[in-house]
Amino acid sequence: MTRQLSLAFGNRHGGRRKGAGRKPKGAQAGVKHRSRPEFVRRTPVLVTQRIAVDCPSLRRAEVLAVFRRLVVKLADETFAVVHWSLQTTHVHALVEARDSVVLARKLGGFFAQLAKQLNRHWKRTGKVFPDRFEA
């Protein structure tokens, strides 16, 4: 009967170590990857999402129309955007969600759809939201 041999791997690659991981892109570091705090149902959460530096301004009537359509489309009994403000380089939104999972999933889908529609409107390709949202 043959015996399985073990291979000795050094600690050269992989695993948690200082300086490991994807480095922030651009001139400024993005949102830190810390766990977001839990929240109670129907407590509004302030969400901030920045756009890429090479994107046009969000302060246009066409962008507002696209944003409003998505807010109405995604609203249901588990998620709602209560109030929002479109700034030149970022979006502020007060959001209510059933729990943290619904918040993350719905906002991820919301910003993905918004990016797709904005790229189509601006006749461009590439990332619109290069970093994760801050809540």
Can you give a write-up of this model?
By secondary structure, this protein is an alpha+beta fold. The protein has helices at 61-74, 100-122, and strands at 45-50, 79-86, 90-97. A 3-stranded antiparallel sheet has the order 1-3-2. A hairpin with a 3-residue loop joins strand 2 (79-86) and strand 3. The longest helix has 23 residues, at 100-122. The chain is extended and about 70 Å long.
The portion of residues assigned to helices is: 25-40%
Oligomeric state of this protein: single chain
Global mean pLDDT: 82
Number of strands: 3
How much of the polypeptide forms β-strand, as a percent range?
15-25%
User: What is Rg?
Assistant: 20 Å
Determine the structural class based on helices, strands and strand pairing.
alpha+beta
Q: List the strand order in the largest sheet.
A: 1-3-2
Biggest β-sheet: count, sense, barrel? Answer: 3 strands, antiparallel
Number of helix segments?
A: 2
Shape: extended
What are the segments in which pLDDT stays under 50 over at least 5 consecutive residues? none
CA distance, first residue to last residue: 59 Å
Which H/E pattern describes the elements? EHEEH
List the main descriptive attributes of the protein structure presented here:
three-stranded antiparallel sheet; 135 residues
In short:
The protein is an alpha+beta fold and 135 residues long.
Chain-wise SSE layout:
Blueprint: E1 45-50, H1 61-74, E2 79-86, E3 90-97, H2 100-122
Antiparallel strand pairs: 1-3, 2-3
Helix pairs in contact: 1-2
